[in-house]
Amino acid sequence: MWQEPGAVAGSSNIRIAFRVACANIAAHMKRIFSLFTLLLLAAFLKAEDTRCYELRIYTANEGKLTALQARFKDHTCKLFEKHGLTNVGYWVPVDKSDSRLIYVISSPNRAAHKKSWQAFLNDADWKKAYKASTKDGALVAKIDSTFMGATDYSPVVKPVITKDIRVFELRTYTTAPDRLKNLHARFRDHTCKIFENHDMTNVAYWTPMDANKGKSNTLIYIISHFGTTDQAKKNWRGFGGDPAWQKARVTSEADGKILAKQPVRLYLNATDFSPIK
Q1: Alpha-carbon span 115 to 104, nearest angstrom
Q2: How far apart are CA 197 and CA 190, in angstroms?
Q3: Which residues of 41-56 are buried (b: 16+ CB within 10 A; e: fewer)?
Q4: Where are the alpha helices (DSSP H) in 76-123?
């Protein structure tokens, strides 16, 4: 067989084999890279939310709720962010006779939260705003605080503003002894999905961090409904009558009741300065 001058016998076959080997290696590396990317993405999507959340409920003195909201809108929220406290959401009860302001803030962890809060309290701008706002009397009669951690099935808590009117719902569940894990399982595997089937949006799910606030037996969560409380009640009726929910409830309580008492419910409207509304 004729060969190019200087060509080595079999060199063509070697070159072909080399190209095939390179192609195989490249394809293999591409598969590995794709798998690695998918694993990273899965890890990111399932990354545990380790932030520290604080639910704070302020009961305003008579006639002071509007002034309290103004202080948050004009001063407090900005100062929170300045000192590393993230504004999650601010709400007031739908019931106008209820003079409470309910809000949630967060930080990377409990230690950071404590440090940021102290820095906020020591801020000269905060002291000035507080003094000016209370010149005619204290705005707040009572404060309740609960530090919380997100459950593993809680949606990512992020600011979402919708164009449509929606009502929020703060719910607190207290379980029988050693039954909180069963309640979590029911929400994780069934309830959250069924909520969405009935136009109920999962906003966030938490458990308290401290024993005296119900660490071992309490679930606190927020959902929302598009429309008014009438629509919310209609959504609940649909949920309660859903065969999937009825089956999940019966199955989850085969070895005993999960809840120690009826859930505590509070319908809320987002304030105009809330990151979530």
Answers
A1: 17
A2: 11
A3: eeeeeeeebebbbbbe
A4: 77-82, 110-122
Q: Of how many residues is the chain composed?
A: 277
Question: What single-letter amino acid sits at 65?
Answer: L
Residues ≥6 apart with Cβ < 8 Å to 126? 75, 76, 79, 120
For the domain made up of 52-270, give the CATH fold.
Alpha-Beta Plaits (3.30.70)
Distance, CA of 56 to CA of 145 (rounded, Å): 5
Sequence-distant (6+) residues with CB within 8 A of 210 are 146, 147
Cα dist from 29 to 21, 23, 26, 32, 36, whole Å: 12, 10, 5, 5, 10
Each residue of 88-103: pLDDT tens digit? Answer: 999 999 999 999 999 9
Cβ atoms of residues 56 and 142 within 8 Å: no
Tens-digit pLDDT profile for residues 105-120: 999 999 999 999 999 9
Distance of alpha carbon 51 from alpha carbon 53, whole angstroms: 6
Distance of CA 53 to the CA centre of its chain: 9
What residues form DSSP beta bridges with 247?
A: none
